[in-house]
Amino acid sequence: MNRKNLRIAAPAAMLALALGLSACGAANESDGGSDAPSGDSVSGTLNGAGATSQEAAIAAWKKEFQTANPDATVNYDPVGSGGGREQFIAGGVAFAGTDSYLEDEEVTAAAEKCGSDIVEVPVYVSPIAVIFKLDGVDELSLSPKTIGQIFEGKITQWDDAAIKADNPDATLPDTDITAVHRSDDSGTTKNFTNYLEAASEGGWTGGTVETWPIKGGEAAEGTSGVVAAVTGGNGTIGYADESQAGELGKAKVKVGEDYIEPTPEAAAKTLDTATPVSGRAETDIAVDIDRKTSEAGVYPIVLVSYQVACQTQKDAATADLVKGWMTYIASTEGQAAAASGAGSAPLSGDFATKVQAAIETIAAA
Amino acid sequence: MTTTLSPQTPGSGPLDVQQELYGAQLPSWGSKAVVGLALVVGAALYLTGTNLVLAALAVWVVSLGLPVWSVVVEGRRKATDRLVTVLVTSAFALAMFPLVSILYTVISKGTKVLSAEFFTYSMRNVVGEGGGIYQALVGTLLITGAAAVISIPIGIFAAIYLVEYADGNRLSRWIRFLVDVMTGIPSIVAGLFAYALFVVFFGEGVRMGIGGSVALSVLMIPVLVRSTEEMLKLVPNELREASYALGVPKWRTVAKVVLPTALAGIVTGITLAIARVIGETAPLLIIAGATDSVNFNLFDGRMATLPVFAYQSIRSPGIPPEFSIDRAWGAALTLLLIVMLLNLIARLVSYFFSPKGER
Amino acid sequence: MTSTLAPRRKRGTVVRAGDRIFSGLSTSAGILILLVLAGVAAFLTIEGVPGILANPDEVKSGQSFWPYVWPLVYGTLIAATVALIIATPVAVGVALFISHYSPRKLGQILGYLVDLLAAVPSVVYGLWGIQFLAPNMVPVYTWLEDNLGFVPFFAGPASATGRTIMTACIVLAVMILPIMTAICREIFLQTPRLHEEAALALGATRWEMARLAIFPYARSGIVSAAMLGLGRALGETLAVAMVLSVTAGTVTANLISSTNPSTIAANIALSFGEASGKTVNVLIASGLVLFVITFLVNFAARSVVDRRKEFSGAN
Fold it and tell me: Using 50, 70 and 90 to split pLDDT, how confident is the model at C3?
C-alpha cells in the first residue's frame, strides 16, 4: 500500500505546504477582527461585481477605504457590466459597477429584489481618446464626421481631403489608415459609437452598440490590446481610455468651432451638460450625455460608469458599509484618488453634491 | 541509449569488408558540415536584415541538402533515414524556438519583481509600486491542491476500470468516448457549470475556492484518465499473467504489479494534468472571484489565484502601468516555478518507487 | 480485456473482499465521470435551449441562433484543424527526438523544459502572440500574398499587424505542443526495447526501426495525444481572443488577412462580460454546439482510426 499512498503524496505535500503557509497571514495584513472597531469606522465584507473599466479606480478606492476602516474588506469581481447588473439583480452582490445605466425593466427587477428604490450614481468618468500613430505627425485635429468616416472605412488614406480640411497646417503622408477597434463587447465601444452616432452627421451609420458593427478594420481585445495594436503599426488609429494612451498621439476633437484636447477636466464638464433620464426615482441619477454639445471646453467622448446599490439594506451594519463605501467614492478625496490612480475625471462640485444626496438615503430596512 | 543501438557504427574490419557490409557512406563530417553550412547561411541572412522566420526557413532548406547528397552516395534507404533525422531534428528546433522564446520572456520579465516582499505581501491596500502575490499564491495552491485531491483518485480508478475491469464492455466504450468529449469542454463552460452547480446549494452570488476546484477537476479528469489509461495499457500482459500464476488476487496484481510498473507514466500524467489547469483563468474568475486579501478557507468567500491576478494586472494596470504589469509577469513566473517544483517531486517519486528494471 | 487471463470465479477461486472493493471503486469512478459529463451536458442544454430558440430581437447580435453561430463554428474548426496539422508532426518529431535521437540526459532535460510550458497561463501566450509572433509574421504573410496569392488560403490582403487566424493557429499549436509531446514521449519510451533491437538487428535503419517497431505500438497513444491537443485547441479562450483580429460573421478561407472569423470559445470570452438576459443563453448554446462538435470529431476519429489492439500490452 505504501506505493499507492506515496502516489497521492505529491498533491498531499502541496496541501501540507499550503496549510503550513496558512500559519501566517500576509506580512502586510494585520490580524483584523480581534480589535474592536474603533470610532465610526465600518466593518464587514462588501462584495461587488461589474465593469472592468472601474477596476483600476476601485483598486485605488479600496486602498484608502480599507486603510480608514481596517475591519472592512471590499471585493470586486471584474466580470463585465452585464454580468455585474445580472448578479446585482439576482441579489448576488451588494453593489454593481456598470458602464451603462440600467434599462427600465432592469430597474423594475432590481427594485423588486431590493424591496426599495435603487441608488444609481455615476462615479467614474473617463475621457476616451482617439489615439493614433503616424510617422511624422504628432498633432491631429479631427471633426466628428471625419472620425466616423475613418472608423467606418470610408476614409482610407491619411492624406484624404477631409483630414486635410481639419489640419490645414500639417503635412499628411499617403499612408493607408488601419482603424483599430475593440473585439470584446465593451462600454468603451458603446460610449464611443454613441458619440459617433449623435455627433458625426451621418459619417457613422453603425448606431450605438457594444459589439463593433462594421465589417473590416482591425480588432483587438481590451484597452491594452487596442493600445498595443496602435503602437505596433504605422498609420493606425483607435480609441482607448485617455489614461492608458501612453506616448501615443491623441487627436483633438472638434466641438462647436474649437478643437478640444481629451483631458479629465474637459471630460468632467460633460456631466454638467447631461440631461437626467426621465421616469427614474430620485436616487437614480442616470444621465444621457449631450454628445452634440457645442459648449466651450467640453470633451464629449467620455465613458460614464455607474455604481448601483439597493436603497434599503437588510441590516444596519450592511447599510453602514455600503453607505460608507459609496460616500467615500463620491467624496472629493475619493474622486481625487481615482484621478491619480486610474486617470479618471473627478466629478464637479455641483454634481457630486447631487450624488452624495442620493447616497445619503441608503438605510437599513 | 542510442549510441549502443546505432546501426551505422562501422566495424573495424578490413576496408573492403566494410565496404561490402555497409556500402558507400558519406564522410563522417558530412552531416555536421551541411548543418553548419545551413546555420551559417541562416545567420548571414538574418544579420543582413532578412526576416527571422524566412531566415529559419532558409536554414531548413539548406539542411535538406544532406539527404539529397545521401541519396546520391548512399542510396535510398539511408537517404530516407537521413531525411527523417533532419525532419525530426528540425521539428525539435522549430518547437524549441517558440518555447524558449516564451520561457525567456517570462523569466526575464518576471525575475525583476521577485523579492521576499513579493512572496509575503498581499495586494491589500496596495496601489502602484510594491505589494505581492501572497494571496494569489495561497489561493492557487489550495484550489489546485483540492482539484488534484478530487481528480486523481477518480481519474486513476476510472483508468483502472477501463483497462483492467471493463472487459471492453459497452459502458467502458462509452466512458472512453465521453472522456474524449470532455477534453473539449471550454474552460469557461466548466466555470459556468461549477457556478450553476454551487448556486443550487448556496444561492446567488456564491464565490468559493472549492467551486474553482470543481471546475478545474472537470478539466483535469479527462487528461488524467486518458494518460493513465495509455500508461496502463503499455504494461506487458506477461507481468499480469505471472502474477496471477502465483495466485495473487486481481486487485493486488493491479495495486502491486500494474500500477508500480506504470508509475513513471502515471506521475507524468498527473503533473501534466495539474500543469494544464493551474494556469486556467476564465473559470476561476467566474466561481472563485478575485480579492486582494488572503483567504485560507476553501469553503467561504473569494480566493485570489495567480492566473486571475496576472490577467487582472494586465487588463487594468492603473497608472502608471509598469508596476502592475511587472507583477503580472512575476505571477506568471511563480506559476512556472510551482510547476517546476511539482515536476521535481513527481520525478523523485517515480525514481524511488518505480520497479528497478531496464528503464 | 484481461478477462481470459484473470482468475475467474467459475473455477472455484474464492472471491476476495479486496477484489470486490477494488472493482467497485473503479467502476464507480467510471460512472462518476459519466455523471459529471451528464451534468455538464444537462447544464448546457437547460441553459442553452432558450438561446437557440431566442428571437433575433431579444439578443444583442440581432440574429437568430444558427446564422449567428455558423461563422463561429467555421472559425473554430479552421483554427483547431490548422493548429493540429501544425502541432501533430512537430509533437511526434519532438517526442521522437527526445526519446530516441538525443542523448538520454539531454533528452530528460528537454522533456522537462517542454513539460514546464504546459503551465504558462494563456494570457502569457496571448501576449507573446501579439508582441513577438504577429510582427514577425507580417513579412511572411506579405510574401505569401505576393507569391501564392492564387491559393485561396493566401488570397490577402495581408494583414499589416499580423494578427491573423494563421497567427492564432500557430499560437494554438504552440500551446498544445507540450501536452502532446509529453504523452507521445512517454509512449515512445515505453516501446519494448526488444522490438527495437530486433528491428535494428535485422538491418533496419533508425527510421525503419521507428516505423516498424515504435509507431505501430504507439499509434493509439498518438491519437490520444492528438485528441487531447484538439480538445485544448477547440476550447482555448483567452489566447485566441487576444491574438485574433475578429470580424463578426466572417466566413473565409483566407488565413492571412485582418478580417477573420472568431472561434466559439474566444467569442464567449469576448462577449460574456457585457452580456445579459437571452444573450447569455445564446453564448451558452454556442458552448453546447462546441460540445457537440467535440463529440462528432471524436466519433469520427474513433471510426477512422482502428485501434490496433494487438500491439497493446493489455489486450
Answer: very low
Q: Which domains does chain C have, with CATH numbers?
A: 18-307 (1.10.3720.10)
Chain B residues near residue A21 by CB distance under 8 angstroms: 137-138, 141
pLDDT at B149: 95
Provide the ipTM.
0.78
Q: From the CA of C12, how many Å to the nearest CA of chain A?
A: 27
User: What is the model's pLDDT at position B203?
Assistant: 77
In this prediction, residue C314 carries a pLDDT of 40
From chain B, pick out residues whose CB is under 8 angstroms from the CB of C2. Answer: 163-164, 167, 237, 240
Cα C110 to Cα C195: distance, rounded to the nearest angstrom:
25
pTM: 0.82
CA distance A176 to A236: 8
Q: Which residue of C has its CA nearest to B340?
A: C116
Beta-carbon separation of A185 and C271 below 8 A:
yes
Q: Within 10 Å of residue B107's Cβ, how many Cβ atoms?
A: 14
| pLDDT tens-digit readout, B247-295 | 898 889 998 899 988 888 898 889 888 887 888 888 888 888 888 888 8
Residues 174-233 of chain B with CB under 8 A from chain A are: 204-207
| Residue whose entry in the numeric block shows the C-alpha cell 485560507 | B296
Task: Quote the pLDDT of residue B139.
Answer: 93
Substitution target from B107, B169, B193, B324 for chain C, most C beta carbons within 10 A:
B193
Residues contacting B309, CB < 8 A, separation 6+ = B123, B133, B136, B290, B327, B328, B331
C-chain residue closest to A232, CA distance: C161
Contact C115, B270 (CB under 8 A): no
Question: Do residues A200 and A146 share a domain?
Answer: yes
Question: A138 and A254: one domain?
Answer: yes
Q: Could you give the count of Cα atoms lying within 13 Å of A189 in the half-sphere of its Cβ?
A: 26
- Domain with residue A103: its CATH number is 3.40.190.10
Delineate the domains of chain B, giving CATH numbers in brackets: 24-110 (no CATH), 120-353 (1.10.3720.10)
Among A315-329, B327-341, B343-357, C292-306, where is mean pLDDT lowest? C292-306
Q: Cell 538525443 appears where?
A: C102
Considering only residues 110 to 129 of chain B, which have any Cβ-Cβ distance to chain C shorter than 8 Å? none
